[in-house]
Each structure stands twice: as C-alpha cells, then as structure tokens.
Fold these 2 entries.
Entry 1:
Amino acid sequence: MNINTQNQQITAMKYSFLSIIMLAMLITACRPSNEVTRIDPGSTTDLSGRWNDTDARLVAEEMISDALTKPWLNQFSRNNQQPPVLILGKVRNESMEHIDTEVFTKEMERAFVNSGSVSMVANSQERQQVRDERADQQTNASYETTKKMAQELGADFMMIGNINSIVDEAVDNRTLAVFYTVNLELINVETNQKVWIGNKKIKKLIERRNYRG
Amino acid sequence: MGSSKIHIHRFISKLLLLGVIFLSVGCHSYMLDDAQYELRDSFTDGNYERSQSLLNKFEEKNLYKSKDKVLWNLENGIIYHFSGQYDSSTAFLNRAEIEIENNYTKSISRGFASFLSNDNKLAYDGEPYENIYLNAFKALNFVHQKDWEGALVETRRMSFKMEQLDIKIKGLADALSKADTTGRAEWSSGRVNIQNSAFSHYLSAVLYAKTRRPDNARIEFEKLGIALREQAELGDYEPFDVSNLAQIREPESYNVLLTSFTGQSPIKFQEDIRLWDDDYYLKFSFPSVELYPTQVSGVRVNINGEDDINLHLIEEMDLVSKDVYRAKQPIIYTRALLRSLIKAGGSKFITKAIEDENENLGLLASIASFIFKEASEKADLRGWQTLPGQAWMNVVKLPPGTNKVTLEYLSNTGRVLYSEDYEVDITENTQLELIESIYSK
C-alpha cells in the first residue's frame, strides 16, 4: 500500500467519523427537549430524596392493613351491631418538609369506605359545604327533595396524627439520612379512649455526588 | 515553509475566534452587572411592578443563565414577597432552595471554564446566610397566609441549617485546635458569624411560642441571645440586652408581630490590577464589597395615635454579607491571581512560538492575547440585590377592634424619613397578625 492510498483511507475515515458525529448531533437536536413517559403509579421514583408519592403510598398501605385488622374494629362491630363511624381530624406536619398529608389520608378513607367495615363522615371543612347546600335547599329545593336538617351521622371515632422527621447530615453535606415517623390514632369521640395507634417508619439515605461533567 | 504558514494562519484565526468568544463571555457578565444594578434601583424605589417586569425582560434576554438560577429565584422571591404575592414568592424561594441543594454537585466543565475565563462561569450556589434568609422570608409568607404549619416547617429548616453550619464552622475550629499539638496557635471560628441569624431565631421563637411549643421557643430565645452577642462583636458595638426581648416567649402578651426592613445588601465593585513590562502583561480582577449606608437609625411605631414603641434592630444582614465576603476574600484573590498567571504564561508561550515563525503574525498574536486577557478577566459581582440590609422587630398586644398602626422610619436626628399606615383588625381569637414594612433607603 503506498502513502497516497493510506492518506486517502485516513481522509475517508475522517469524513465518515465527522458524518456520524453530525448525524448524531442532528438526531439529538431534532429530539424534543422534554420526554414524557407514562409509568405505573405504584413504581418507585426517588429523584430528590424528599418525601414523595412512594412514601405516601407506603404509609397508606401499612396504616390501612393495620387499622382494618386490629381488634378495635371487631369489638366495636360486635358490641354495636354496626360498623364504626370515623371522622378525619388533623394530621399535623411536624417535619422539615411541606408534606400534603391528604395524599395518604384520602387513600385510607377510600379503603375504609370500600371495605364496608368502617363508615366515614365528612370532615370539618367538607361538611361546611354540605351544610351550606342543605341550608340552601330549605328555601330553594322542592318540598319532596329537600333534605332534613339535624340528621347528620355522628362519628364514633376521630382519626388524628402527626408526621415527624429527623434529619442527620454529614458535616461535608455529602450524606444525608432522613427518618420519618408517621403516627395515626383513633380516638373515641365520647370517651377519649385511644383504640388504635398505627405507626409507619421510613428511613432514607441520600448521597450527593461531589462532581458532575 | 508554505505548510507552516497555513498552520500559523489557522492558529491565528482560532486565537482570534477564542478572543471573540471570551469577549462575548465578558460582555455577558457586564450585561448581568448592569441588569443587577437596574433591578436594585427599581426595588429600592419600591417599584415592585417594574422590578417584576425587569426580571421578565432579563429572562427573555437570557441574562440570568442556568448558572444564575439561584439568584434569579431569590430576586423573584423577595420582589413577590414585598408585593404581597406570597404564593408566588414561596414558589420562587422553594426553587432557589432546591437549586442551592443541586449546586452542591460541582460541574467540572464549569470549573475548568472558570479557570480559563473568570468566576462568572461558575454556578452561583448561594451563600450560607442566603440559604437561611430564604427560609425566613418563606416563614413570613406563611405567617401572612395564617398557615402556621407551613411557617413552622420553615422554622425547623432554618434551625437545622444554622445548627449544621455551627457544627461545620465551630466544629472545624475545634478539630484544628485538637490537632494542633504545638498549642501555639489559637484556633477559633474567629469573628466570622455566618452560622447564626438573630432575625431567624427571633422569628422562630415567636412562632414556637405562638404555637404553644414553649421548650422550642426557649431554645430559640437562648440562641437569639448568642446570635445578638456575636453580631455585636461583628459590628463593634455594645451587645443588645436580650432580656428586653423576653416578651416574645410569652404568647399571651402579644398578638402582633412588627417587622421592618431597611437598607440594602452591600454592593460589589470590580477592582483591577494590571502589571506589565516589555514582554509581559498581567491583569487580575476581583470584587470589592462596600456597605450601602442606610439613612434610617430607628423605627418608631405609633398605635392608634397614642402609644409609641420602638422596633429593635435585630439583625444587620448587610454586615453578615460583608463578613462572609471578608472570610472568602483570600480564596477569591488567590484564585484570581493564579488564573491570571496561567493566562499570562500560556499566551506568552503561544505568542512567542508564533513570533519565532513570523514577526508580523507575532504582533497580531500579542494583540489577540492582550484582548483575551482584558476581556476574559472579570470579577464576579453577582449577588442577591433585593436582600434588605437590616431587620427590625418587636411584638405588641393590640386591643380588639380596628387599630391604626403607623410605622415611622427615623433619621439620626429624629426626622421622619418615611412612614406607612396600617389598619389591623383584632378579635379575641387573633393568634398573630404580621405587620411588615420596608424602606430601602
């Protein structure tokens, strides 16, 4: 092989290499800047280390199975021959993050109502709307369809709770351990007796990278 | 000979291209400086509408790039806060906090680029005190919205960040002290007071007391005392007697929190040093920080035209900001000097190589290297422009009904520089009303 042929081959390789790079750049440039993919809502997606849907789901699953299998439910149903009526109270956020507790409390309400073993009544914010509607019906709805006043179902138990978190961070800020503890309690509205206490603990270790490209 | 000429021509064109790139990089930084000054002027004039439209205009012009996102969000957060749009303010401050966290991971390419050009290429990752103040302003947003749970979340975040900084700074000094077997040097965190914020502790103590957490309120109150002492050292004045603030621990003794902000954050200027001889040219630029003196020396509050109370000067954020810069100064200077030396050495080597080949091209190369050094060396003057200079606070118990409250900003001769009137409705159930005012002059 002479030098000219060798040079021609090198030039050809150079051009093919450049063409591949240009093609790759063209393809990349033509792609949309955002890509959206629908994924299973039950899948775990930990992107930042902060409280997320997976944590809320874990809490809801644990609390639902615990609340529906503990003795308070059977005892009440046996003694009263009817399912207990629950009302949702305040779940206080005492953590270092803004956590929407409704994500898991709604999930619990749904599971309770659908199980048929527990009845739920509207909470303080929800019932105000219903009361306004009922009051409005007294003057505006037909006699046959007007709903009666003072027929609300009184709750037997109120569910309250709190979320606490403990954060432990290395001095170099590289490693962070976050511990969440969620407590939910059912309190007898008449006697103040606590009939069930559920707890779910979640611990996360977050390691930050020092450098990126 | 012919092929070497072509090589030199190519090299010169690349060098000129590089010069143009660095010139544009330098230009962008100067444009951002101008934008920052313009934003500061509109904000301190109290023209928040103009400040918002300026920020939108700067975004359209891409003056705040991805590396400046922390600043962009901080500025928006404060402007929306003082224009009473608390949800938007919280959203921007949340974004700033997340960006600060994300900037923990340093970009190698940005670091490399900053070494070739200037520190403006680095991502602005927020100073520790900025990371704390943003939570304080978020807490104020939630108090305005009567969202105590949200305010307490921010309070806990502030406390945590300050504790972490305290461990980091004081712990480092302790570790050095233990490691020093000679016992000759005195290792301490010195006069650097970036791990404590009296303003944040005051706000935390009030919020904890008002939400019936007396133990947390006590701890925050004790930390407030320490912060005030450390701050007095920083400002070289007599420490404020914290017992005068004991009322904040008694939630029944007040129903209104009065907060005023005065002054502005310090201004950064560029200082250039140029050294040269016959065949050597060196330029290095670094930021210089100057306090913006406020005209206000007191804030008086008149209630229903009868009683006068004074607000306490709780924190001088401008001093904290300047102090942090003072602590970082040696690093900034060293980096600027090293960078200039590398640039000077590198360009001298290249120019010499070209000169050896062709004297005329050598002259062109030396002009290009001069432009490159002049244009690329630029001090990093980025900073949180809308951060107020001082925080004044006090609490008061107002009677039920509509109360007229007037805040008066006083000069050192007692002249009223500016005043604002508020009407506050108080009922038997009022937990805490917040009156917040700002005068940036």
Note: The CA atoms of residues 298 and 414 of chain B lie 8 Å apart.
Entry 2:
Amino acid sequence: MSSREILKTELAKLALGPFDSALPGPLRLQMELDGEVIVSAKVETGFIHRGLEKAFERQRWIASISYADRLDPDGPIFGELALCLAVEEIAQLTVPPRAEQVRVLLSELGRISCHMEYLVRVARAVGSDTMIHYVLRDREKILDLFELTTGARYSINFLRFGGIQADITEGFIERILELSELFRIRVKEYNDLFTYNHAFIQRTQGVGTLSSKRVRELGVTGPNARAAGFSADIRKIHPYSGYDKIDFEVPVADLRGLRSGDANDRFLLRLREIAVSTEILRQVAENISDGAFCSRKQGQEIKVPAGEAYVRVESARGLLGCHVAADGGPMPARIQFRTPSHAHLAAIPELLSGTRLEDLPVVLSSLGLGVAEADR
Amino acid sequence: MNAFLWVSSWLEGFGLEQVESIWILAPLGLIFIFLFIIVPSSMIVAYLDRKVTADFQARVGPNRAGPAGVFQSWADFFKLLQKDRNSEVSWSEELWLAIHTMALYSTVAVLPLGSLMLLVDTDMSVFLPFWAALVVALGTMLLGLSQKTVAGWYGGIRVATQAISGAFPALVAMICVGLRAGSFRWSGLVAIQGAAPLSWTAFSNPFQFIALIVFLVSGLVLLAIPPMDAALSSPDVSGGVAAHLSGRRLVLFKMGRFYSFYLWAVIASVLFLGGWKLPFEISENLLEQGKIQLLHFLELCCLMTKSLILILLVIWGARVNPRTRVDQITDFAWTVLSPFALFALIGASLVAGWGVLS
C-alpha cells in the first residue's frame, strides 16, 4: 500500500473459504477490509483433517507406508521416505546403495513435480494461463516417470523398510538423463517467458514479505526460509540417503536485496531449486550402482523392536520431521509428523494484513502451502 | 434520412418490394447488422481466440464440435442457453443487466461499417460509443452492487474505477484524430485517410501514432479487456460481476463483453488505420458500375480484416502477460497514458495549426 492512500472507510468483514478459487486448499479466512486493503486476517484450518496419525496406530507396519504417502498428495515420496528412515533407524536396517540412490532420484523428481505445481498455482494467482499450460506439459513427463517405475502417478507407495518395493524399470535411468537435459532448457524458457516479465515482477515484488526474523520465530523452513536468506537445508545439515555424496549447492536468496523474502523471491527460489534438483538427478543417474534393491525379503512381516526415532528430511515444502515410537508389537505405537506447511499457515495473518485483496491469491500461492499436509 | 437506403437495396436483392418508410428500415438495418455482421464476426473471433491461444499454450484447442472445432462457440452458446440458476435473481439485478445491455447495443446504430453502411453519421458520432462504454461500465458496477455478493461488490467497483481512469486518455486520443480530420463524423474521419498505410492517420505524424497506442491501451482499460481485466477475472473475486450470473444472463453478459471488444477494435481501425478505404480506386469504379452490394462487402471485409488483426494482437499480449492489478491499471492510466495522450494532443494541435497557417 502506498503512502498516498489515506482514504479510510468503515471496515468490512469478509469470510473466504473453506472452498474458494483464491485459496490453496480448504481453509477459512476471516478478514477485515478497509476498502481493498486487508486490515486483519484470521486463519481457520482442519477442514481436511483425516485423522492420519491415529490411522497409523491401527495398521500393521507394512501398511503404514501407504498412509504416509497420503500425508501430502503433491509430494507423496517425502512422507514415505521420512517414515522409512525412522523405522529403519529403530530396527537397525541397512539400505543397499542402489535403493538409496533410487530414493534420491524419486525425492528429487517429487521435489521438481511439487515445485512445478507451485509454479502453476502462482501463475493461476497472477492470471498467466500460458505459464500454467507450459508447466503442466512438462510436469506430465515426471508423472510418466513415476508411472514407469512405480506403476502410479500419485500415491506411489514404492518405498519399503530396508529399500524399495521393486527394482527400477528398464529405461528409467536413460529417461531421467533425458529429462534433466530437457529441464535445463525449460527452466531457461520459464525465465525468459515469465520471470523477467515486467508485469509479473510488478505483481509479485514487495508482496507478502516474510522477514528473516519472523522466519526464525515462526519456524518457517524450506524454500520459504531460504527465500528470506536462511541457508538451512536438511540435505546439507543432516544428510540422509547419501545426499552427502552428491555435489550440489542449496540456492539461497541474496540478502543484499532490499525486498528479500517477498513472493517474487519465493518464486525465483523454487525455479532455482528445480535447476539444482535437475543437476542432482543427472549426477545420481550417471553413477547409479548395481546390486540389491532391498535388504529384506519382499512381503515378509517386519518385526520392529521397541524404541523411538525422530528423523528429518527436506521435503519440497521444507523440513518434514517424523517421530516413530514402537512398542515391539505388530503395529506402530505412535507416528507423528512435523509438517512444514503448519509453520507457513502461522505466517498467513501477518503476511495478509496490509496487502490488497487482489494480492491475497498471490501471497497464499507464493507460500506453497500443502493444506492436506498441515491438517493431516 | 438516406442512411438506411442501403437496407432497401439489400431487401430488393432478396426479391422484396421497395420499402421507403424509415421506421421499417431502421430496425431492419439494426437487426441485419447484429445478426449478419456482429454475431458471425464474434464467432470467428471467438474461434480464432481459442485456437491461437491454444497454439501459444502448447495444446490443441477446440477440435470436436464441427470440423477442427469451428462450431465450439455455438455449442457453448446453446449449452448456456439451456441452463438457468436455481436461486432467485433480484429485480434490480435484472434491471441493471438490461440497462447495461441496452446501452451496449445502442452503439450498433453508430457502428461505422463502410462508406455506405453508416447508420448515424453526425458531428458527434465518434463520441457516442465512448459515452456508451461509460454507461456500460456504470451499469456493470450497479449490476455488481445489486448482486449483494463479495465478488459482485468488489468486481463492480473495480469495473467503474478502471473505466473512469481509462476514459480520459481514450477521449483525448479521439480528439487528436478529430483535430487532424477537422470533423468527428465517421465519413470525415475516413475521408482524409487513404488505402496505403502511410496515408493512415496513425502514420501521418508521430503524435497521431502516440495517440493510436494510447487509444489502444486505454480501450483495454476502459472496457476491462485482457490483460487489463482484473476487475472481471481476478481470482480473489472469482470472475467479479459474472460470478453471480449464469445461463442466458451469462450469455448476455459475455456477448456484451465480447461486443465491446469488437466495437473498440472497429473504431480504432476507422479512426487510425484507414477504416474501410480500398486501394486502386475500387470504390469509385464499383460505384460507377452500380455494384453497391459488392462495394459493401469489400469495404466490410477490409475493415473486418484490420479489426481482426488488432483483436488478435491484443489476445497475443493477453496470453503472454499476467493480469495486472486494478490499482496498477488505474495508476498506469492516470500517470502514463494520460500524459502521453495530452502530449499527443498538443503535438497534433501544433501540426494541425501549422497546416492551417502555411
């Protein structure tokens, strides 16, 4: 809001949601508006609470994986991976190198796919239909790869305790290499078409600025935190699944910029992450090792001894934590997730107050919220 | 009033008797223009829009209804006509929709479609569609306010703010053209232009070219055409005023939006781009030979081609660029378009004055 706008009107109350085209998922926003400017906003969540964590306690260990990939429908691999890593830690299972590499490949494919979903949402918020179609066209190729190797495009249910469900399909590695080459070109194309578009910059710059101080206080992680200048990335701090053997750099927004942490920064950072993930894909695919894909026999009931483990993975939205408690029985005693979107939800009220109503979809989509993941 | 004589020539062509009374000719003329010129060209533009957009966006576009999907617009039209909303529509909503539609289609009477197909050619012809556009914006705002929904309320107010900010530069740009022609009659405005691009008003001097650009862009703002359509399509108001309309009311509203876009392209072609002027003295030869209907047709084709190209250029811009925010649009209109329009006006006056003095 510029300083010229001093016209004050009576405050209007506006409730949006739980279902509205401006929202990233089922949420309710209770807002007070001064003309076109949002004065205050309250977020209500829980509209797609599925009792997921409770459901884990009523399933056998092997079934819990398919529940974990329902944690976030846009990035199913991250929930599965976090759960598998935690259970493997309790049960002291080793994972063969080939399985670890496939896990990394799937994670990075999932990250790119999730970020592309994000680009689509931002494009929809600013009304750029062309970008939506371009990005969706390319995202199809990733979903094709998921289908090729796991049989499903979403909810892949592919990881197993101690490895993966099956060996990768023939031609998968070659297609990954082709894809990484294609995406190198595509990211440049997106930049030329949209990132440097004056109207796009006008719509996103200075909108929904999240300061690094508030990032720390709210516990915001992942690309949103890195867009505010935080270089934290679990893949670097606590490497898992062999991320320490891969040579990659985590993109961080330049703090010297005056408006670091706005919607435009968050958008740019995701684009840069797509490029980095492409590079990781290429490295892993070129050095894929032979050998077993699982340290356990398929279909065998797993015996998890009593114990507890907490692991963290870097999901596409940020830090995804998984706390598993086992009592030695056939079913988990408790499985709990720390989801990044929950912290992002907490940032919404302050990001919205002071912005124009028209920027509401831009702010919300630029956070990359997974409401399903936050509600669980 | 011999403005409607061309209608009787067409009627004779269909084997009907000579009709002289103006009260029969005028409505027939309007219906003729609406049914045989506006509706078909709208359908052509709608089809081209979808196909060209699809091509830009790496997809196929309509391909089922008719060969290569040419009947898709008709299919949509008839589908929407069959639908109607369940909830009640308030009388004020009906009233404002009717007023907004009447204001819009009143401009059919002043639509310049050829040297002989000019229904109302007065000294104020240029301004009539312009005032109609403002009445339409006001009608749309009141339609939105009477809907008593968030989308309608905000959408309606935004339409009005946009229209007010776009109207001033558009008006000034039109005056620039009038200064050169010394008239605001359609016939006078086209008479000073030739068929060749260099003899068009837009390229007669740099100030007129600036006026053309200002007119094109401020038309987008005034009528809320993409990419300046934040008032009607922004996701936070989920379609604005149109969000609460459905069935035949939506058809009426959407066709009105489309017609205003079309009207604006036709006027821009007439004011700046040579209008219906045909090369190689075709008009004179055809007039001598008495082939009036062929002349009508050729002039119309010439004008429609120019308008279509303009429309496609705008669609191109709209597909490449994201939607601009309403306050950015109004800021742009007041702080960029208006100064340029005034600059063009001063320049055009100097050029006109120079011509008179020398």
Note: DSSP finds 13 helices and no strands in chain B.
